[in-house]
Design brief:
Elements (H helix, E strand, L loop, with lengths): L2 E5 L2 E4 L4 E8 L6 E8 L6 E6 L5 E3 L7 E6 L4 E6 L8 E9 L12 E2 L3 E6 L1
Parallel strand pairs: 2-11
Antiparallel strand pairs: 1-3, 3-8, 4-5, 4-9, 5-6, 7-8, 9-10, 9-11
């Protein structure tokens, strides 16, 4: 059975950095598009970074230039490097996977989800 497990969340001050990782198992990882979503309290879940099977990336405007998504198909791992963090980056971060060519922007199109990891940025 497919499983995604995130790690690396925590608490930092504004301007700090955090690195998230997502270990995948039980799926043909190299055939999946991957993404990071986040959900702040009282808000809808939003996509922040996406990567296709060929390592092509895209980002939400709110994180461009600050976040970097990457993957290793051999290690079946996804990462999110977050720099210059802001209080509005606070939320629960989830990795998600869907088999296909182009990573969807909508969360309801993803098949597998991790359990989430909390990121808190204080001012």
């Amino acid at each position: 059975q497919a499983q995604l497990v995130e790690s690396g969340g925590g608490s930092v001050q504004t301007g700090g950095s955090l690195s998230l990782s997502c270990a995948a198992s039980g799926l043909a990882y190299s055939r999946y598009c991957m993404a990071w979503f986040r959900q702040a309290p009282g808000k809808e879940r939003e996509g922040v970074a996406f990567i296709d099977r060929d390592y092509i990336t895209s980002y939400a405007d709110s994180v461009k230039g600050r976040f970097t998504i990457s993957r290793d198909n051999t290690e079946m791992t996804l990462w999110l490097q977050m720099n210059n963090l802001l209080p509005e980056d606070t939320g629960t971060y989830y990795c998600a996977a869907v088999r296909g060519v182009v990573p969807p922007l909508r969360d309801d199109e993803y098949t597998y989800w991790g359990q989430g990891t909390q990121v808190t940025v204080s001012s």
